[in-house]
Amino acid sequence: MKKAIFIFILIILWILLIFYFSSRNPLYSSQQSSFVTKILRKIDQIIDFSDTTLFKKVEIFLKKLWFKTQYVPAEMLVRKTAHFGLYFILGFFSFFGFHLFIKNIFSILLAITFPNLIAVLDEYTQQYYNRGSSLNDVIIDLSGITFGVAFAVIVYYTFKLIRKIFKKKGNSENLQN
Fold it and tell me: Any stretches that span the bilayer, and where are they (predicted)?
């Protein structure tokens, strides 16, 4: 029960963080993404990751997927990646939260549906902070949720399999002794 309370507190705090970011005025939000873009450019000057073939392919793929064109400023890609990342984490937490109570496919469905409801409400409330709401943002959020839940399922079942293997190994060693 302590695990469930902890996970649901994490989920609530994460939702509050999402709504906090959404409540920022457009100018402040733009300044935040500009700041992150500048940091990424400085890191790129040191590591030079943006010149790799993989980076260029991923960048073009995401721009075409999210904006329907590859000609988008880096700052916009940073903003949409933040959407994806915030909801990826919410989807990840949601799977574990719902899976503690529902041990079947419905935990996965709820782990996708609940955060998507939050994404829709988030976009809706943005209009009260002089920000535009966008169906495209909800779709990006949903993709983050889906990948977060998929990653959580992979992590969960990988650890479950590892635990089963070690249990089986422990049982066979006990039988031999």
Answer: 6-23, 86-118, 138-159
